[in-house]
Amino acid sequence: MKKFDIRNIKLKAMRIDEIDDRMLLINLYATQAITFIIGFIWLLFQRRSPFLLFFPESGLSFVYWGLGLAAAVIAVDLLAARFVPDEANDDGGVNERIFRNRPIWHIVVLSLVVSICEETLFRGAVQHHIGPYWTSILFAAIHVRYLKHWIPTGLVFAISYALGWIYLRTGTLLAPVIAHFMIDMIMGLVIRFRREE
Q: Could you read off the pLDDT of 48-96 as tens digits, one per residue?
């Protein structure tokens, strides 16, 4: 039997066009699973129930907050896409690769998985520990594909801060999950059905 040697592991930087579709999806789902597990464990260490964070305090106002924020973000994002040069909005082609040829049902599933996993960690666990401002800086930093350009980095920070604010306002993670889900799904569908220029 061959002995495992960690020194034989070699890491190399890859461009998005060097990764096939299967590996892209494996990476996406694996990172979301890790994000969710870290958030879940962190919440347990905070002695907070990960499940109770998803229960609304009362009424349906969290739905209105989530949908309202999503509508505002989508409007700003579409305006930015219209008036900001493509090179200033470039994410390296990641979103294009993720959504362009994906079936609609898969865009919905991806958006739901990402919104639940990221909101559990960032709004549920991290924000409770360091507040919405620093959480938003961290959230923008992990969306590393945007860091080369200040406009998308600023938008990710602002969106994250707004997600944190509606979480504080409504008291349930459902509000930022709804907003995050709608933003990702609608923008994914825009990419999916956008005409080639």
A: 999 999 998 878 999 999 999 999 999 999 998 888 887 777 777 788 8
**69 to 31, 40, 96: CA distances (angstroms):** 25, 25, 23
CB 123 within 8 A of CB 135: yes
**CA angle, 139 then 142 then 144, to 5°:** 125
Helix/strand/coil for 185: helix
CA distance 29 to 112: 12
Do the beta carbons of residue 145 and residue 91 sit within 8 Å?
yes
Q: Look up the pTM and report it.
A: 0.89
8 A C-beta contact, residue 145 and residue 139: no
- Cα–Cα distances (Å) from 36 to 119, 159, 182, 192, in that order, read 9, 20, 19, 26
| Residue that has been written with the tokens 């495992």 in this structure | 4
